[in-house]
Amino acid sequence: MDFESKYRKTQMNGTIYITTRQILDEELKSRLETGAGEIFIKKIPKHTAISTPEKIVELASKLGEIYALRYKIDFAGFSRGFAFLQYIDETLAEKAITCLPALFRQAYRPFTVHTSNNIKELIMRRVQVLSPVQVYLELQKVSPFAYLRVFECQPQEFLFVLGYQNNEAAAYAHKRIREVIRRFGCHAHVGWLGQKHLLSCGNAGSDCCQQLDRKMKPLHTGMWNCFTL
Questions:
Q1: By the 8 A CB rule, do 101 and 138 touch?
Q2: Chain centroid to CA 151: how far?
Q3: Which residues of 105-123 are buried (b: 16+ CB within 10 A; e: fewer)?
Q4: Is residue 32 a contact partner of residue 91, using CB atoms and an 8 Å limit?
Q5: Which end of the chain is more exposed for a tag (fewer CB within 10 A), N or C?
Q6: Nearest-CA neighbor of 220 among 155, 127, 148, 159?
Q7: 141 backbone dihedrals φ, ψ, rounded to 5°
Q8: What is the pLDDT of residue 199?
Q9: Angstrom distance (rounded) from CA 60 to CA 66
Q10: What is the largest CA-CA distance in the chain?
Q11: Cβ neighbours, 10 Å, residue 157
Q12: Are 71 and 15 in contact (CB under 8 A)?
């Protein structure tokens, strides 16, 4: 395989990226950027020649054209044991979960293949002193987010759900927010919000969020007020 002509390789922080050089339709690219068809590869050996990102792409491309591989490394540049893979044809994900393990075994690679959860939401709780608008402004300084949904679980006690374009963006934001969590109070906490959680965007109705008044307060008081910023 002529690797250089088909893919580009870059590195940022703890991730090696291998991405296609193909020019894609904007609609398709947008879906892939949000994690469509992403699969999760585990049990990648820490530092052997058989577990390089190039080798993974070479084997995985036997099923179809690769859109991107995100290969996680530690501070020494060795594999952290996992990576995320997407095909340009997002429908190949299901086939890859079935067929890639056999391809890896034939090449004496011990990797396992799984569906990626592609979690893209964080939840922040136990924020003190700051109002929802102040939290919004502070979070904008830390890391850009796609949306912020706020739940008033009881009077003046809020939960903040942050949504991101994809898992990669959410992971970066999780790290950055943890570094500055004291800005939001000594008891503030940020964590991952699972897709099955009641507050996850996928489980919330499109009309669940109410508007705020001119003072940025919910129009209707009571338990579990929900609004967007």
A1: no
A2: 22
A3: eeeebebebeebebbbbbb
A4: no
A5: N
A6: 155
A7: -70, -30
A8: 76
A9: 8
A10: 64
A11: 12
A12: yes
| Contacts with 138 (C-beta within 8 Å, 6 or more apart), sequence order | 130, 183, 184
Q: What pLDDT was estimated at residue 227?
A: 59
Report pTM: 0.75
Query: Which pLDDT does position 154 carry in this prediction?
Result: 80
Phi, psi of 29 (to 5 degrees): -60, -40
DSSP state of 210: B
Q: To 5 degrees, how large is the angle CA 114–CA 85–CA 97?
A: 35
Rg (the chain; Cα; Å): 21
Show the tokens assigned to 15.
């991730």
For residue 35, give both structure tokens: 């994690």
How many whole angstroms separate alpha carbon 29 and alpha carbon 40? 19
Tokens of 149: 């949904």
User: How high is the mean pLDDT in each 10-residue block of the chain (229 residues)?
Assistant: 89 92 93 92 86 93 95 91 95 94 91 90 91 90 89 84 90 94 94 83 56 56 53
